[in-house]
C-alpha cells in the first residue's frame, strides 16, 4: 500500500490539473459568448461535476479571473509566433490586439468585482508582460515603417483600448477596423510631447 501512495497521489494531482485547465478553457469559451452563463453550464462543458468546479474555483469571480489570467499569459507569449505567421507586422499587430480585446471582455464580465483586491492583483500582474509583448509588435512595425519610432507601448495600449469598448458584433468589428486605420495614421507621425496645461483648452474663450 505504501508503495502505491506516491503514484496514486501523483495521478490524482495530474487529474486535478487537467480538470482545472478544462474548466478554464470551458469558461473562456462560454464567458465570451455570455458573461452571465451559469457555472453549472461551464462544469458540464468541461466534463466535470459542479463539486469539482467549486473545489477549484469557489466563486464566480475566482473562475473569471483565472480564465482572464490564463488567456493573457497565453497571449503575451504568442507575440513572436503571430509576427512569424504574418508577412506584415501591422497585420500581426492588429490580430494580436483583436485577440486581446476578446480576452478583456471576459474581464469586464466581473463588473463591480473588478475593484476587489484579487482582481487588481491579477490585472496588475498582467501589465508588464502585456507591455513587453506590445513592445515587440511595435518594434516590428517600426522596422517595416508602419509606426514611427518613439511611441511608448503603454501609450499604445491605452489608445487601442477602444477595441474592448466597441460593440461585440459585426457593426462593432467594422467600427474597430475604421478606428484602427485612424490609429495607424496617427502612429506614422513621431510622438509629440505636450507640456502641463498645453492643449487642455481651459480658459479659452
UniProtKB/TrEMBL annotation:
It comes from Pseudonocardia cypriaca. Coiled coil: none annotated. Keywords: DNA-binding, Transcription, Transcription regulation. GO terms for molecular function: DNA-binding transcription factor activity; transcription cis-regulatory region binding. Pfam families: TetR_C_43, TetR_N. Residues 17-75 form the HTH tetR-type domain. Residues 38-57 bind DNA. This is TetR family transcriptional regulator. InterPro entries: Homeodomain-like_sf, HTH-type_TetR-like_transc_reg, HTH_TetR, Tet_transcr_reg_TetR-rel_C_sf, TetR_SbtR-like_C.
Amino acid at each position: 500500500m505504501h508503495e502505491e501512495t506516491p503514484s496514486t497521489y501523483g495521478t490524482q494531482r495530474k487529474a486535478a490539473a487537467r480538470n482545472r485547465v478544462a474548466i478554464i478553457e470551458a469558461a473562456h469559451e462560454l464567458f465570451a459568448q455570455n458573461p452571465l452563463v451559469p457555472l453549472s453550464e461551464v462544469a458540464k462543458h468541461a466534463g466535470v461535476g459542479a463539486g469539482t468546479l467549486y473545489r477549484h474555483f469557489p466563486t464566480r469571480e475566482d473562475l473569471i479571473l483565472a480564465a482572464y489570467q490564463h488567456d493573457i499569459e497565453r497571449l503575451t507569449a504568442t507575440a513572436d509566433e503571430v509576427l512569424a505567421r504574418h508577412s506584415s507586422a501591422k497585420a500581426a499587430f492588429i490580430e494580436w490586439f483583436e485577440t486581446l480585446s476578446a480576452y478583456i471582455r471576459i474581464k469586464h464580465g466581473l463588473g463591480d468585482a473588478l475593484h476587489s483586491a484579487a482582481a487588481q492583483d491579477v490585472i496588475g500582474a498582467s501589465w508588464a508582460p502585456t507591455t513587453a509583448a506590445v513592445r515587440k509588435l511595435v518594434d516590428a512595425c517600426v522596422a517595416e515603417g508602419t509606426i514611427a519610432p518613439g511611441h511608448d507601448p503603454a501609450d499604445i495600449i491605452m489608445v487601442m483600448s477602444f477595441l474592448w469598448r466597441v460593440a461585440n458584433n459585426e457593426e462593432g468589428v467594422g467600427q474597430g477596423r475604421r478606428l484602427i486605420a485612424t490609429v495607424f495614421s496617427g502612429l506614422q507621425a513621431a510622438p509629440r510631447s505636450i507640456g502641463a496645461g498645453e492643449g487642455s483648452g481651459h480658459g479659452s474663450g
